[in-house]
Amino acid sequence: MNQKKILAASLLLNFVLAAFSAAVFLQFYHLKSQIETLKEENTLLGKELNSLKQKTEILQSQLDYYKMQAEYYSNISKSTSIVEGILGESIVNIVAVREVQLSFFEVSYEGVVMKVKVELKQGEGRILINTQPRVGIDLQTSARTAKLVAENFTKKSLEKTDVILTVIAQSDVDVVDGPSAGAAITIAIISAILNKNLKNDVFITGTINPDGTIGWVGGVAEKAVAAAKQNTTKFLVPKGQKIVAILKPEKREPIPGVTIVTYKIEKVDLNDYLKQLGYKTEVIEVESINEAYQLFVS
Predict the structure, then answer these.
(1) Looking at residue 13, what DSSP letter applies?
(2) Which residues are catalytic?
(3) How confident is the model over 168-207, as pLDDT tens digits?
(4) Residues 74 and 185 both lie in one domain
(5) Residue 61 C-beta-side C-alpha neighbours within 13 Å
(6) Gap between the Cα atoms of 290 and 154, Å rounded
(7) What is d(CA 291, CA 261) in angstroms, rounded to the nearest whole number?
(8) What is the model's pTM?
């Protein structure tokens, strides 16, 4: 009789423990689901925050642009001299980054070299952009800033001048950046205004800010290699970007016939990096459009 009682008590205890375990498991599963939901919401909020940050930066840049433009043309309007259209032409090398699909799961990036031809003709102060052939690059915003900076640099008004930009590439290409050509376009517009020839063996990458400073860009290592392949003597980069992070592949074979490739982030000096690849291109940091322009014409 006692054994039956003990057995019954044991079964009851096991049942209680099982029920308790099930309740704990269900609560744990519920909490885990809540945590996953919160993580997803946090990720979405982070993306929205970054998006809002980027929009704010763009709006601030546009505000600075229009403010400087208003100040510039206000000073122009105070002058008694008659503003006439300017005629000029220039061509400059630009380098961008494009996406390369290595396989269904693997994507790589490489630099691509193009040219931008700048033509100045009498007109209404418009900026006209053409591509030969189709090039997936957005230059409108950086071109407006480039025009303003070129006017401030040369003290010449383009109010009665149309700026025609023609992007020339060897083939159709979709690039993943456009603002990084801002500094090069500014230099080309300046040289067209001043009727100066630019060196063909000097390249630059960098955005252009309304105050004439050159801003940071991505894909500097890929762009440096693409420029070096063109026998470039000098490759100009924004101040602070001569040291870059690259992905260095590391292969290992855990079992015969199976190769695993992982990538390690490594910081390198671009001058040393290009030398290791067999190029003689000198990488120079520049902070302003004045520094960069002098290296293109001196």
Answers:
(1) H
(2) 180, 223
(3) 887 766 664 568 899 999 999 999 999 999 999 999 999 9
(4) no
(5) 19
(6) 11
(7) 42
(8) 0.70
